[in-house]
Design the sequence.
């Protein structure tokens, strides 16, 4: 792969990740984990499957995202399990191994094991932001912050501010 | 056979175990000018900030963030793990983990073998016992009375609260203020000495606590007597974590024990970066690790002991006490230990530590296995018996609105109302702890929620994000801590068939819940259900016969876990026929041997045992000091 191809594929990875997670590409980049997740996914997936996984990227980010995800990704025997593992990777920093049946059909990788990718990956799991908290053991909110009213849900906070 | 080499130096006191008890004892003894050696089986986690940081990283990377997960679990020095707990079936013991479980129920508690001991992963709850807890036999005809009363321990409670650095307000903590209908009419009088107060102000209540406080005043019947009905009240829990030091009301200071103390100076982290970490910053990971050490751990007291003691204080880590040796008069002549240079490698050098007095401070289980292996403390036949814990049952549900979980210390408040009362003749007392971390302990949240929503509810994108907020923000959890009575059949033994790779005996445990505790758990579950009904919480609690800790009571099934509160195995008492030590924790059988820690407690009651065991250490320290001086005069 040339550097140029790599960059296109990486952008596609971010685009697909954004559609699957509900966080935009800039937010995903801001975790500082995008490169290592990209590296991990490349290690786990055979090249042709990775290519297939990223191929809808040019059509994403417009108005048909739900249709594309619901039709091309989630029910697909090959791409569905990959999408579900990738969503969980972004949300928890932990790789969920692909099902046994998937490995038999599409190829096993020795990197396809349950693992928290890195200490940063744990701390940057999107779940902590989604639930209105902070990663346990990191990004502490300060003395007494636990007494305060919890943050509003994202969309609702936006409505209130606008 | 070659002779075991003696250590060159003979100390005034040799202590086995560098945890809560060993730390306070060492500090007290060196302050009196005695020389002290601590033998610690585990590794030193606190020597450098980098070491401690590495344990934090291990926590981040652990798939199951259990209490022991940040710390090394050496194959040669195994600590019990909650992951090892399975149901005990048939007649074969369960040998999955370090404990050999004979059942009928699994003993679900753990502890940590390391410098600092289990204080590294404790929650920080620092409750005093109730006056009734010392008089269970006299008041209810159950269990045993302690050889002393609440009043006799009061000053030592003060000392322990100031050593640990407990955050609470005395005015909120009397039995009356907690909403407890005490079994004795005067139990709330003078619960705290005049002008006494905790060193730091109370830790602020969580938003979750405030939600539960909406049920305050609700009447809950417990037991058969209408006069036992209690009125719910959420009360803040005294905690061993830094908040804001209290300014003494007058210039005189605050009376603590027999002295007057100036304003408390909170201690941060140990090691070269000691300035880091003052007040609790809400890392929400107290169990298993406080990243900034705002939560007390025994390394702080051990650091004081090193500082005060200088050349009087010596600690040898990676030294497993293996046998307590006696001379012809039944006095302890030495403790042989296995000093291992490489953690995890079963190679060691056998050495002997010598002192005038010897103290076992390795916790309620390790003290017993060492004593049993050494064939000591036999005359009462109580050694290893009366093992108690707080069977811990969780009740969880979904609140009707966001309550802000996963922020702050694991628990900041509880319903303390059920800690004593007339009902206690038939039903065990209990405390309902309010959890601040959603269904973390109960169901592995929030990771389990992500898995469920992605794998089963087929959500993705912003709908997933929003549903996570919706579900997790509503998660509430109550934890029941119920008392157990001392039972001779709940016991620790040893068996030559079960040893560690270092050749030490593994604890063999027989354990069960009696109907008294089961009745308490059932009453607690009923109270939780009523609280849920009152607050509109949808009950999601699920107990399954496949759970390791599943049990039944009056036809209904429940599940309990261990609380990590290991108590009672070498209890104090009034006579060598009914106890392992006297009320100063001195062995009845061996004049210069002492056993300290939660194993000394004759009953467990409803308070997490750390504060009480710490207070009792002051009592032992005075007696040991006197004994060392007496010995010197001879």
Sequence:
């Amino acid at each position: 792969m040339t550097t140029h191809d790599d960059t296109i594929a990486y952008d596609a990875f971010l685009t697909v990740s954004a559609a699957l997670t509900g966080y935009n590409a800039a937010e995903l980049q801001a975790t500082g984990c995008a490169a290592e997740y990209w590296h991990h996914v490349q290690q786990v997936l055979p090249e042709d499957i990775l290519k297939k996984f990223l191929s809808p990227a040019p059509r994403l980010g417009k108005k048909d995202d739900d249709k594309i995800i619901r039709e091309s990704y989630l029910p697909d025997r090959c791409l569905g399990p990959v999408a579900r593992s990738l969503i969980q990777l972004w949300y928890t920093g932990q790789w969920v191994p692909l099902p046994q049946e998937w490995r038999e059909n599409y190829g096993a990788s020795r990197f396809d094991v349950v693992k928290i990718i890195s200490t940063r990956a744990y701390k940057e799991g999107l779940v902590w932001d989604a639930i209105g908290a902070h990663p346990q053991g990191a990004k502490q909110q300060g003395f007494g912050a636990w007494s305060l009213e919890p943050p509003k849900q994202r969309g609702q906070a936006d409505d209130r501010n606008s | 056979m070659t002779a075991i080499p003696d250590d060159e130096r003979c100390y005034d006191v040799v202590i086995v175990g560098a945890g809560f008890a060993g730390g306070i004892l060492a500090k007290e003894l060196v302050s009196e000018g005695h020389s002290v050696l601590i033998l610690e089986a585990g590794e030193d986690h606190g020597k450098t900030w980098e070491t401690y940081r590495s344990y934090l990283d291990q926590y981040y990377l652990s798939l199951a963030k259990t209490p022991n997960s940040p710390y090394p679990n050496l194959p040669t020095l195994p600590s019990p793990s909650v992951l090892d707990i399975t149901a005990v079936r048939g007649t074969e013991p369960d040998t999955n983990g370090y404990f050999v479980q004979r059942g009928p129920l699994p003993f679900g508690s753990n502890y940590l073998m390391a410098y600092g001991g289990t204080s590294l992963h404790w929650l920080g709850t620092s409750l005093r016992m109730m006056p009734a807890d010392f008089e269970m036999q006299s008041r209810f005809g159950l269990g045993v009375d302690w050889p002393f009363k609440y009043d006799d321990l009061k000053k030592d409670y003060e000392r322990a609260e100031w050593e640990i650095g407990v955050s609470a307000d005395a005015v909120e903590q009397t039995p009356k203020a907690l909403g407890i209908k005490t079994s004795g009419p005067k139990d709330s009088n003078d619960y705290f000495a005049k002008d006494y107060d905790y060193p730091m102000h109370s830790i602020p209540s969580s938003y979750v606590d405030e939600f539960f406080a909406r049920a305050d005043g609700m009447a809950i019947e417990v037991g058969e007597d209408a006069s036992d009905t209690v009125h719910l009240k959420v009360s803040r829990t005294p905690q061993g974590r830094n908040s804001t030091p209290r300014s003494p009301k007058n210039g005189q200071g605050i009376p603590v024990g027999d002295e007057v103390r100036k304003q408390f100076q909170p201690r941060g982290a140990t090691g070269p970066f000691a300035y880091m970490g003052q007040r609790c910053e809400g890392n929400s990971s107290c169990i298993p690790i406080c990243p900034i050490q705002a939560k007390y751990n025994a390394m702080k007291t051990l650091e004081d002991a090193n500082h005060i003691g200088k050349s009087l204080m010596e600690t040898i880590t990676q030294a497993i006490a293996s046998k307590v040796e006696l001379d012809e008069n039944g006095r302890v002549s030495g403790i042989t230990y296995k000093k291992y240079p490489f953690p995890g490698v079963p190679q060691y050098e056998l050495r002997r530590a010598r002192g005038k007095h010897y103290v076992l401070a390795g916790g309620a289980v390790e003290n017993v296995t060492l004593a049993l292996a050494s064939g000591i403390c036999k005359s009462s036949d109580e050694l290893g018996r009366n093992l108690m814990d707080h069977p811990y049952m969780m009740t969880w549900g979904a609140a009707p609105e966001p309550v802000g979980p996963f922020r702050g210390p694991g628990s900041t408040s509880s319903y303390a109302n059920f800690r004593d009362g007339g009902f206690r003749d038939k039903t065990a007392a209990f405390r309902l702890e309010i959890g601040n971390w959603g269904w973390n302990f109960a169901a592995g949240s929030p990771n389990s929620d992500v898995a469920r929503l992605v794998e089963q509810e087929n959500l993705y994108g912003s709908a997933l994000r929003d549903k996570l907020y919706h579900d997790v923000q509503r998660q509430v959890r109550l934890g029941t801590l119920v008392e157990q009575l001392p039972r001779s059949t709940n016991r620790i033994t040893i068996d030559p068939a079960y040893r560690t790779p270092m050749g030490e005996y593994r604890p063999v445990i027989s354990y069960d819940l009696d109907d008294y505790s089961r009745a308490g758990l059932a009453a607690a579950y009923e109270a939780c259900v009523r609280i849920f009904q009152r607050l509109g919480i949808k009950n999601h609690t699920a107990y399954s016969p496949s759970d390791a800790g599943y049990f039944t009571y009056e036809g209904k099934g429940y599940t309990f876990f261990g609380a990590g509160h290991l108590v009672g195995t070498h209890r104090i008492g009034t006579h060598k026929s009914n106890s392992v030590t006297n009320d100063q924790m001195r062995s009845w059988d061996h004049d210069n041997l002492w056993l300290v820690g939660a194993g000394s407690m004759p009953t467990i009651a409803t308070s997490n045992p750390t504060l009480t065991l710490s207070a009792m250490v002051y009592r032992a320290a005075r007696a040991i000091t006197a004994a060392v001086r007496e010995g010197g005069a001879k």
Observations:
- Residues 3-131 of chain A form one domain.
- The longest strand of chain A covers residues 94-95.
